[in-house]
Every structure is written in C-alpha cells, then in structure tokens.
Amino acid sequence: MSLTRWRGSHRVVIAVLTLSLLLVAPVAQAAEYYAGKTIEIVVPFGAGGGTDVWARFIAPYLERHVPGNPRVIVRNMPGGESITGANHFAANARPDGLTLLATSGTTAFHYLLGRPQVRYDFEKLAPVIVTATGGVVYASPRTGVKQPADLLKPQAPLVYGGISATGLDLVTLLTFELLKLDVKSVLGFEGRGPARLAFERGETTLDYQTTTAYQTQVVPLISQGKVTPLMTFGILTGPGKVERDPTVPDLPTVPEVYQQIHKEAPSGVAWRAYLAFMAAGFAYQKALWAPDGTPKEVMAALHEGARRLIESADFKEKSQDLMEGYPTYSGDAVEAAVREALSLPPEVRAFARDLVSTKYGVKF
Amino acid sequence: MPGAALDALAAFADPALLGMLLAGVLTGTVVGVIPGLGGTAAVSLLLPFVFGLEATHAMALMVGAVAVVHTADVISAVLLAAPGSASAAVVMMDGHALARQGQAGRALAVSFLASMLGGLIGAFGLTLSIPIARPLVLAFGSPEIFVLCLLGVSFAVSLSEGKILKGAAAGLLGLLLGTVGSAPNAAEYRFTFGTTTLMDGLPLIAIALGVFGLAEIADFLRRGAVASGVAAIGGGWLQGIRDIVRYRWHVVRGALIGIWAGILPGIGATAGTWMAYGQVVASARDKSRFGRGDVRGIIAPESANNAVEAGDLIPTLLFGVPGGVPAAIMMGALLVFGVQPGPRIMTEHLDLVYTIVWSFAIANVVGAGLAFLLSPLLARLTYVPFVRLAPAVLLVMLVGAYQDSPNIGTLVTMILLGVAAWLMKRADYPRAPLLIGYVLSLPTERYYWLTVNLHGSSWVTRPWVVVLLLLLVASVVWGIWSSLKANRAPDAEAEAPSGPAWHVAVSAGALVVFSAALVASFGYDEGARLLPMLATIPGVAVSLVQFVLDVRRLRRGPAGPATDRAVVQSALTAFGWMAAFVLLLWLFGPYVAAGVFVPLFLVTMARMRWIGVATYTLVVLLAMSGLTWLFGLTWPHGVI
Fold first, then answer.
1. Contact B466, B144 (CB under 8 A)
2. Pairing between β-strand A38-43 and β-strand A99-103 as defined by DSSP bridges
C-alpha cells in the first residue's frame, strides 16, 4: 500500500516534473532562439498614431521579458488605412517569430467588412499580446438630453461628427442603429480630436471618445455644464456578455440603455453586429500577431514574454496612464475569444455591409 | 503665472536639463541638414531614450530637436537645391537663386536669423496665448477654416509670376494631385488605379522633392559648381543681417501667420509656411524678383515655419489634438509620463508647459548659432562640381522620400513628378502654385463638406467668414491687377528661354491630364467628385486657352534656340540615372544598388579616378549603414 502510494506519488512527481520540463523546455530552447536576434514589429500606421505609440511603448518591455532578450524594433508601414502594411505582412512575413504585426480595430474592420483590397486573413495569424480599451458616448446639454432615454425625443437635432463609416466610428453608428436613434452623422473629420473640437464649438451635439481621451478632455467639461455623459460601450467578459466599463462604472452600457429604452434585452442581427464590431474595435482593439505556422516553442516564448510583461510592476505602473487601466492579455489567454470575435456569421457581415453602403455610400 | 515661467527658466541652470536641450538641438540640426528627414525622424530617433528620463528632461530633449529642424533644413535647399523638407522647398526658390548668384552667405544668414526670430516670436506668442487660446481656437469653426484654406489657395494667383493662366493651371494641378486617395467626405478612393500605394494619397515629401529637388538636379548636371566664381560665402553675412533689419516687419508677419496656422488644427505646418510665402508675394508692390533671389521670399516662410511648431503646441497641449506628426509623438511620450494634455494641464503641469516654452525659445537661439557655425563648412560643397555631389544628393533625397512613405511606388511617383516639373519649368510654368494647391487641397475639401453638412447655408454670414472672404476678394483682385501690370514689363532675366514648341507640348499635356481626370471624376460619388471637378473643369478651360495661345505663337515665332538639344540631353541623362537607381533599388535592395550606381555614375559622368571612386563609394555605403543603424531607416528589401 505504502509502496503503491509511494509509487503513486512518484508517478505524480514524475508527471509534474515531465510536465514542467515540457513547459520549460520550449522556453529554454526559445531563449536560445531569441538570443541575439531582432524582432521587427510592423506597424501599418504612420508614426505618432495610437497603434504606433502602443507598439513603441510595448517594445522595450518585450525586449526585457521575452526569453533570450531579443532586440525589438518598430517599423512603420503606413498606407491604405493600414491595409497596405497588413497585406505586406501577410504576403511576406516568415513564420519565424521575428516579424510581428501590430493591428488596430480599423485593421480588423476592413477584414470584417470584407473590403476588396484586403489580402490578410486573421485566421492565418496568431495573437501574441492584446490590449483592450473602451469608449464613452456623450451629448451636448443643448439637446435637452439628460439621460439616455431622452435620446429618443431630443429638443435639438442630434448631430454626430465622425471620421469614416469603416473606422472605429462604425461602433457608434451601429449603436445608433441598434437603439433606433434619429442621428445625423457627418463624416469627414480627420480625427477624434478635431471632431471633439467641433463638439465643443457647438457644431455637433453628439460625440464619442475613447475612455482615455474622455477622462482627460471631456470630464473637465462636465462640471462646466457643457457635456452630458450618456453611456459606454462596456467591456466583454465572455461571448455576448457586456459588462460595465470599470474605468467609468457609473455609466450604463449600450445594452443596458437598450433595455431601458425598449424594455427588452437586445437581440437580432443589429445586436450581433454591435457585439462583433465592439469586440474588434474596443475589447480587443490593439493586438500583436505572429504568422500562422510559427513553431510552437517560439510562440511559447512570445506568450511567456507577454505574461511576464503584463505581470511586471513597472509595466503595470507605466501603462496605467496610457491604457487607462484596461487589461492587456497574453495572446494564448484570449485566442479563442478573439477568433470568435473575428469570425463573423454571413448574415451579420451582410447587415454591416448593407448599413455602411446604403447609409454612408461605402462601395465594395 | 509669471512666477511659474521664471521658475521654469531657472531650472535651466541645471546642467542636466540644459544638456538634454543641447542634445536635442544637435540631433535636430543633424537630422534637419539631411534632406528628406524632418521633425518626425528626429522625434522618433529620440523616443527610445525618452522613456528612461524625467518628464522635463524628456520634453527639453524632444522640443529642442523639433524646434531647430526647420532652421537647419534650409542649408541643403539653399546650397544644393535639395530641400530638406516640404517647408524648405519654399525657401529654396529664392534661397538657391541667391546661392547661384554667389550670395549663399547672405541667403543663409537671412534664413537663420528669420528662423530664430520666428521661433522666438512663436515662443512669446505661445506664452501670451496660453490663457486665451481655448476661446480663440473654439471661435474658429469649420466655416472659418474652410475660408482660410480658400484664401491660401487664392495666393496661387500672386505666385503666378505674372503668368496668370499658367499659374492657374499649376494651382489647379496641385489641387487635383491633392485629391488622389481617399475622399474625406465619401468612402471612396480616387485616381488610385486600383493600387493600395495611392490610397493614402501622394506623399507631400515626394511632391516637394520631386517638383523642386529632382527637377533642379536634372538641369545641374550640365553645369559645374553651384556657386559661380569667387563671391565667397563670408561676405554675405553682414548683408543678411541688414536685410533682416530692413524687413523686420516681414519677420513679424511671417511669424504671426505661422503661429496661427499652427494653432488651427487641420491646416498643417507646410501649408502655413506656404501661406506666409503667398502673403508676402501677394502684398509686395514689386514682385519681379521673387523666385530669382528676393530675400523677402526667404524671410516670410522661414520666420513662419519655426513659429508653426510653436503654435502647434497649443492644440497639442491644451486640447490633446496634435497638429502634426512630431507633436503627436511628443503627446504619446507625455502620456507615458502620466501627463495628460488637455484642459487640466494648465493647472496640474504648468511647470512642464513653461519648460516646453523655454526649451523652444532657447533651442531656437542655439540652433541658429549652430547653423551659423556649420554652414561655412557645408558651403564649401558649392565649390565642388555638382556632378560629383549628385550621386550622394540623389541617394539622400530618394531615401528621405522613402522613409516618409516606404513604398517603391513613392520613388516612381517622385521621378514622374520630377519629369513633369522639369517640363513645366521649360515651358515657363510657375511651380509654387502647384505646391500651395496641393497642400491645401485636402483641408479645403474636408472643411467645405463639414461646413455644408453642419451649417447648411447659414455659414456665409458668420463674422469671421465675412472678414476672410473680403480679404480673399481683395487678395485676388490685387493679385490679378499687379500680375497684369507685371506682364507688360519684359522678362529680362528668364534663363535659357525655350522654343514655343515646348509650350505647345506642355499645354497639350496639361489639357490631356485635366480631361482624363475630368472623365474619371464622373465615375465617383457626389461627395467624392466635387473637388476633382472644381479642379479639372477650369483646368481644361485654362489649358485649352493656353494651348491655343501657344499654337498661335508657334505659327508666328521662330523655332526654339539651338541650346534646346543639349538641355534635353542632359535632363534625359539625369532622369535616366534616377530611374536606373530606383530600378536597382527595387531589384537588389539598397547596398547593391548604391554599390553599383555610385561608382558607375562617378566613372561615366564625373570622370573621377578610381581611388576617388572607391573612397566615395565606401563612404556612401558606410554612411548608409550608419544612418540605418542610427535612425532605423527603412529600405526596400530587393525582389531578387
């Protein structure tokens, strides 16, 4: 009995040892793999944009935490609203873990909408590290909107200023669609900043900002009576599960507002489209990808680096301001959820394409 | 508030802070001197070092670099006709003309002093406007920005050098080139020929370097050294200082335009510099010297382009809306330090704001001093036969354009634009209107649609709109009137006049381009075709009239002068070499391309001896790899 027990525990010990060896071995190999090598992060946007800042912020942490301490450099390949760089990556990057692609929600949207220029396929990419963000919708007090329900009967026209129907604005446009609001959307601003200036000047009456910009630029205007905050896009905690944004917990989420206005839980194709684009645009907005077929031990090293990076105190402290406390995930932890978000049922895609082409004149 | 300003100044007694600032200035100067690399390259280069520093030190470093890039980038424009940036292309027109007359020293002195003063006025204006900037920026809505853009476009008339039809054609071509790529108001791509390369439009630096840089180089190969004869660089310095004193109000005016263009998001640094040039030409009584070495043509844009960077800091710091790429990168760095640009920065980080202002002011003085020290050294380059400098200059320009938009298509576009600009030059078309049309094309279109969609027709009666519209009408009327007057005076100094056949050919070419673009515009959505049509319909009309005039002149007048053949041969050779280099680059990547191109060029064109050729090639290759290591330059990989 004791023998058996000993044998039993022996087996356990061996199993544990083997398992840990199996886990550690690839990393140890990969440490050799990455030693003295250089990882190039392709940023398909110009220098100074959100994705560029994100990639450049993360690069030194990857250098420190990926086993083998590779040099990490960032290369901008702007063009075609990130399609050029992502296409180039898809066509040329070898699956050796030495070239990674940084993407934003926009990159995913082109893919989800099936734009004809897109030659990249997220099914052939594996996530290394993913960062979430959030957004807040607010209105001008001139509209008489004091709470979300008032959006159905505003005293002044609801005018929204956006950049383009195929960018992150699509989530806001889908929100208006889902809630069945009567909003005049004026697209063509060169960025969210200028759109916010137009809101402050009174040229528009409805606006959204990412939470970071909301906290710094919009919150000071609330006490001056220039802004009525309305709702957030929320965060995803599981498939179809939207919860309150932890950085703005007192604001209801879009589905909560729907429930409040229409007295039922949101459902149907408009709701599924909202969920899909909200996930790609906010919940998993920034991501770093490796080409499919990258050897397992190399992926393991990258994910190990991502985990260590996320847990390091330095990153936690420094990223607080840049990422507003939104979570950063190691790619393997969210791979299934990200893949789920990026595979759109045909009818949902058709709904989104139909919306942007009939209402906003996008051609496919 | 003055207390905080003085405290921030006192902090510069700390050698570490001052050291950071100087390091930034040094970086900015070096980057500025290299054609094609600008503020973006300088800030990206410094960014990795910044994260390890304190916030004030980091800002001193970055602001120091950004503040002086435009001081230094005129050096290569003036001396080598290789504009260091799109803004420097403005200064090149008059600056390089002066250098060719042996007055490089005067041109550089004027330029550095105007830069420094413009920067100081910018820093001062920045300080003054911080408390009132918010209401000021908010008073200027989409309609005002739209009319301001129109005002800028109208300067094309004044920049026509007395040739209204040709100036209009060039300006309209600029507007048309600016519409390439995605339309701001409609989800549609225009004139992209199905490529992704053109989806984001033609890169500004490729236009500036192609239209002003390559087109000049094509004519230089047949000339010797840039500076002709003995007129030394030194003698001009004093004259330059006198020029600045004489035209002091032009300095102030240029700087104010620069600050304003920087403060208003959406107009852009290059457009601000061009508008400063446009206004000085528009308001000048005697326009005959512009483009042929008028110091006012250096003073206005130079004082503006450093002031633009100062003005740019206002939307960046107070609204979190960066006006340009360098400002966007600095804002990213600020975020990492936990400093949030926005309304609260004035209460929470006033010290940092003043550190930035002082860094800007000090950097401008130090940068100008550094440029003064550096330029006699660089000015010696003008005594080297240009053909020997050509391979290096060409390489640097192409590399610079490639960094801005890393695609071999950029280089092809640049050479094609160079050829087009060279033809324009031969047929006596002014090129300045093209650039001003190009830089204002997108903001004009964007803010037109925003104005109409947001305000209906009520915008026309807004007070600032009325003021700006009156200014616009006055500027156009005055421009046309003085152009007509100038037309009567014979153009005595026009260099190497070309035969009327050239004029016919170029006008016909313009007619074809405008007509083809007009036909293509019909295929676009309502929202996407307005500006292309506004550019092409008058474009067709203007080039048709010009074509008829040119044909009549051809029938009447004598054939072209005999020099034409040599000129054409030289240009064909030059563009042939450029095309060959781009082909090599595309096929084999940078080192093989340079390793083949440089010695081949030096042996066949410059007829250098082999020791010289070998050393030259080695230095070029080492410099390439050094710069790649330092700046993380991007190169084509080579398809083979």
1. no
2. parallel
Do B319 and B131 meet the contact criterion of CB atoms below 8 Å apart? Answer: no
Q: Tally the C-alpha atoms within 13 A of residue B194's C-alpha that lie toward its C-beta.
A: 0
Give counts: helices (H), strands (E), chain B. Answer: 28, 2
DSSP B430: -
Give residue for tokens 């589905």: A255
Give every strand in the sheet of A158-162, ordered side by side. A183-187, A158-162, A206-210, A135-139, A228-232
Question: How far is it, in rounded angstroms, from Cα B638 to Cα B119?
Answer: 42
The closest of B527, B476, B533, B441 to B149, measured between CA atoms, is: B441
Cα angle B41, B44, B50 (rounded to 5 degrees) comes to: 140
Q: Which of A261, A280, A260 is nearest to A272 (CA)?
A: A280
Chain segment A79-108, per-residue pLDDT in tens: 778 888 899 899 889 999 999 999 999 999
Contact B142 A318 (CB under 8 A): no
**Residue A79 distance to chain B (closest CA, Å):** 6
Task: Report phi then psi at B225, rounded to 5.
Answer: -65, 160
Smallest Cβ–Cβ distance between A165 and the set B142, B187, B342 belongs to: B187
Angle between helices A105-113 and A346-360 (to 10 degrees): 100
Question: Are the beta carbons of B45 and B31 closer than 8 angstroms?
Answer: yes
CB contact under 8 A, A76 and B321: no
* DSSP bridge pairs for A185: A160
Residues B488 and B429: their CA atoms lie apart, in Å, by 18
Burial of B562: CB neighbours in 10 Å, binned 0-12, 13-18, 19+: exposed
Check CB contact under 8 Å for B321 and A191: yes
> What distance in Å separates the CA atoms of residue B453 and residue A161, rounded to the nearest whole number?
10
Is the confidence at residue B234, as pLDDT, over 70? no
In angstroms, rounded to a whole number, what is the distance separating the alpha carbons of residues B285 and B478?
A: 10
Place of tokens 């290789």: B82
DSSP secondary structure of A101-121: EEE-HHHHHHHHHT-TT----
**pLDDT tens track for A191-248:** 888 899 999 999 999 999 988 789 888 998 999 999 999 999 998 887 788 999 988 9
**Torsion angles phi and psi, residue B405, rounded to 5:** -150, 85
The Cα B73–Cα B375 span in angstroms is: 11
First to last CA, chain B: 62
Asked if the Cβ–Cβ distance from A216 to B320 is below 8 Å, we say: yes
A295-319 pLDDT, tens digit each: 999 999 999 999 999 999 888 887 7
Q: B423 in helix, strand or coil? A: helix
Owner of token pair 């701001």? B184
CB B511 within 8 Å of CB B432? no
Indicate the SS3 state at residue B556.
Answer: helix
In chain B, which residues have their Cβ closer than 8 Å to the Cβ of A47? Answer: 40, 44, 325, 328-329
Q: Decide: helix, strand or coil at residue A138.
A: strand
- Using CA atoms, how far apart are residues A128 and A331, in angstroms rounded to an integer? 4
Per DSSP bridges, beta strands B181-182 and B189-190 are: antiparallel
Mutate to test the interface with B, among A38, A43, A54, A56 (most CBs of B within 10 A): A56
Single-letter residue type at A193: G
Prediction pTM value: 0.83
Structure tokens at B619: 């230095």
ipTM of predicted complex: 0.80
pLDDT above 70: residue B235: no
